[in-house]
């Protein structure tokens, strides 16, 4: 076979051959560039999918919240650096990062944000006898959350309640009052959210100040939380036919409550024939005594 020497190649073949070499080189560059972009996107998505680091918040809860859910606000106010650091991290979460999370991770994040920012609102105004003594604490005071300005009401009513069908959030959101659910000594985490919310519910309902049955008077007493947010239970726990003497909202949250009771209590509730009464809500501060 004769050897091909580029120098002796006729001019009409030089241009196509040069063009071919150029196109091959460009294609290689293009493929390399595309691969680099894909790798960057993959790395970016891996980073974005990571949940928020809750270490600072976990240390705050362990150090300043006791087993009964009471908070040592005086000590926390004098040592608030980790609380402030975590709350700054809440604001640095971007919408893209937030959207990369699972629903469980989003719910856990929002509950933690609400509870931690409530702690901030209290220490900013401590000493106080009740969160209700802080003007505009729910509807006017704004915090940076997911890169935007949000109030506590925005987190609870406009985000958690609207975007997720998870009524157990009402057993986890803590508005710094004795009538609230107990503040956990650990953050909520996406991977164990279901178990944490179930535990919160059992603990809440075990307290006679939040739920009790009085068979003598044929009354079931429940926290005012169920009066305020009872409709949130209807989608998942409502029935076509209501229990005797109860409306649709009451039937729904009684169905919900029944899951966490003894068989005898469950049987009494599902039989109906009693009336629901709402317990007074204790707005005094959940401060450590």
Description of the structure:
The chain is mostly helical and 289 residues long. The protein folds into 2 domains: 48-206, no CATH class; 211-279, no CATH class. It has helices at residues 11-49, 55-64, 73-78, 81-92, 95-100, 103-125, 152-163, 193-206, 224-229, 234-237, 248-258, 263-271, and strands at residues 143-145, 148-150, 211-214, 219-223, 275-279. The radius of gyration is 29 Å and the shape is globular. The termini are far apart.
Structural class: mainly alpha
- Proportion of residues in β-strands: 5-15%
Q: What is the spatial order of strands in the main beta sheet?
A: 3-4-5
The radius of gyration is 29 Å
Overall 3D geometry?
A: globular
Tell how many strands the DSSP assignment holds.
5
Helical residue percent? 40-55%
Number of helices: 12
Q: Termini distance?
A: 99 Å
Q: Unreliable runs, pLDDT <50, ≥5 residues?
A: 1-27, 42-48
